[in-house]
Every structure is written in C-alpha cells, then in structure tokens.
Amino acid sequence: MAPSSIERELYEAKARGDWAGYLDALARSELFLPQSRARVDAEPAHARFHPSPDGRSLAVYTRGMLPVPDPHTVYTRQSLAWFARAWDHRDPSHLAVNPGSPTEAYLTATPADRARWQAHWDAAAPAWGLAAGAVHSLHTGGPLHGPVAHGLAVGAHLAVSNGEFWNALAYHGNGYVRERERLREAWGITTPEGWHDVLRRMLAAEIVSPVWEFALRVRRVLASDFAGPVDTEHWRHAAATTLRRSAERAAEPQLTPDGVTVAEPRPTAEVEGEIAGVQRLIGRIARYEQRFRADGLLAEGDWVRSVEGWDHGRASQMARWGLATRYGTLDEAERAVLRAGKAARETYRSWEEFSAGYSLARCLHFDEEEFGAWYTSSLATHLALTTDPAGPWRNIPWRGSGFA
C-alpha cells in the first residue's frame, strides 16, 4: 500500500509507463534531501549533495517515504525546479527518487533532462505539496486507530490548515531548517529546554487565556445548577458577582504560620474595570457562538464548554515539531501526544465539542470579531474534519477501548 496519495500517484504513473505523468506528479511533490545534521547546524543556509557510494546518483524522498527521524541525519525540503537549477556537470548522473521502493525512478540529469524538470515544475506551480485545508493521511507509517491516533487527531486542526499528514508521528514537517525557523519565530524556542517548557505548559492548558476559561467556567456552573440554557445577561451578572466576591475574600484576614495577615483591599475601580472587561468578553463569546451555529460549527442550542482544547491541539502538534527539530525524541513526542489526547477527552465529550473550543480560542486571539481569514479557515478546517468520511474524526471514537 502506498504511504500516501503522493506515492500512489507516482506508482500508478510508473506502472503505466507514463514518465511525463510521473514528472508531473514529482513536480507537485516536495522532495526531501538527506543532510548531515552537524553540517546543517554549522551552515543552515547551505544544502549539500551527498551522492550514493558509487557516485552515480543522488537520493531524494517524497513526504510519505521519509524514515523515522534520527539524531544525525536531517532533511531539507526542495522542489524539482530547485534541483533543475542547482545541478551542474560535477554532480551525479541520476536523480534517485525513493530508491528501494515500488515508486523508485532513476532520472537522468543531463541539461536537457533538467530543462524538462523545470518545464514540468512551471506547468505544475503553484500546486506544490499537500493542499492546505484538506485532510491528508499516512496509510502506512502512521497510526490510524487507537490512543496514539486519537492524540494525533487532537492536533488535526493545525495539520489540515498547514497541509500536512494528520497522523505523522515520526514527523519531519517542512524539513529540519524550516521547522527550527517555525519554532524560533512563532514561539521563541531555540533549545530542547525551551521546547520542553512550552510543551509542558500547553499540556497543562496554561497558555490559553485564563480569563476566557473563567468566563466559560461561570456559564458551565450556571448550566449545571439550572439544568438548562443560560441567558447572556444572567451570565454577565453571575460573572460580576463572582469577581466581586473573589476580591472581597482576598481582602479578608488570613491565618498563616506567621500569624494573621491582612491584605489591602483592591481598589474598587480596578475590580469594576475587570468586571467590565469580562462582561465585554462574554458578549464576544456569545456573538461568536451565534455565528458558529449559523455556519454549522455548533449545533443549535449548543455552546462552548472550554477553550483549553486550543492548548491540547497545539500540544499534539508541538510534540511533533520538537521531534522534527531534534529538540525531543520520538518517545517524548509519543508520550506528549497521548497526554494531549487524554487531556482533551477529560475536558470535552466529542470531536465537535473539542473543535468548537479550539476554534473559539483561535478566533478570540486572532480574529477580533472581523470574521475574516482566521475565522473562515477555522470553520473550513472544522467542516473538513467533521465531514471527510476517511478522516480521523469520522473513524476514531472520542472515547474508545484501550483509552486511558
């Protein structure tokens, strides 16, 4: 079985003897070039050719054919056009695509061949790599069922929006250099210690805003107490009452081993300002939920229980990013993915509930009630994952046998 649609297309073209079709598929594919990690760490801007022992070919691999990451060999992601331009007369005579597999091909690399590679790339561009917004699976080499698959599927929002395999645990992403750039630019992570710290905080849902979670927790308590829908004004009033009582309790004398401690009461204006902010937040959440229901992200009458799923989903992906950058190991990534799945199951009751919480947090952080690209991309990803019959959310139960 081909690992993915990429390799299946290459194999079918090869089986037909359709080498033009093979080059078309190759031009649409990302090609990963093995590199010495030590050399890349020293000079990350340079990619080197490492020919086969006989010097006749240079091996490259499509995304579904990449091996389990190891500490010493990393991969850079390139296009067929890049090879057409980078090759010269001193390089091997053949480009070896997925050597040793049923999709393998040894392509001659004369100037005329390289011109042909460029022409196929020009015809294929910009359809390069896996399409963002669609669900892509590894049919071999990645779990499709069970607790690890569940934990990976918790990170599927990011996998789908980024155009990656949702179930790639042995993850290379966009190649070693680009994955390191991603973590440095988006998260300020440049060391294994930094990666471990961010991952720990995500798994504990410590990065998502505690104010958002407080507002939703007030409504959860009200819904439990009254066993029914919670009116927005009732929700606002309850949040204000809770915050005022919390401020009063904080000012009460506390008995400590050192004696009685009396705290200064918080200024009234500060407390009332905090209340006003939470009440505005409640209005934003209510308006997002109204739009969610209109667009099919929430069922009629449903509401968002928690936004902790945003951290759970990002933790599942962060575990894999750490492996791609070699800040973490495969065992560490698997343990973190399992913990992300367990945390999500403890917070939500279904894939749909989880997705609504994830999407709300993402919109509160990025969208500013513009209902622009951040909103539409979240909605599109939710609909793709909840409707694709071959996707993980339609095939992995939210709670199943063997799940902790």
Stretches where pLDDT falls below 50 for ≥5 residues? none
The oligomeric state of the chains shown is: single chain
Question: N-to-C SSE series?
Answer: HHEHEEHEEHHHHHHHEEHHHHH
- Sum up the overall morphology in one term: elongated
Work out the radius of gyration.
Answer: 26 Å
Q: Strand tally, please?
A: 7
Q: What is the average of the pLDDT values?
A: 94
Tally of distinct domains: 3
Sheet of most strands? 3 strands, mixed
* Helix proportion: 40-55%
Structural class: mainly alpha
- The span between the termini is 31 Å
Strand content: 5-15%
Textual characterization of the structure:
The protein has 404 residues and is mostly helical. The chain has three domains: 5-123, no CATH class; 147-208 and 308-394, no CATH class; 210-279, no CATH class. The protein has 16 helices and seven strands. The strands form three sheets. The chain has a three-stranded mixed β-sheet, with no helix packed on it. Helix 13 runs antiparallel to helix 14. The longest helix has 28 residues, at 268-295. The model has no long low-confidence stretch (mean pLDDT 94).
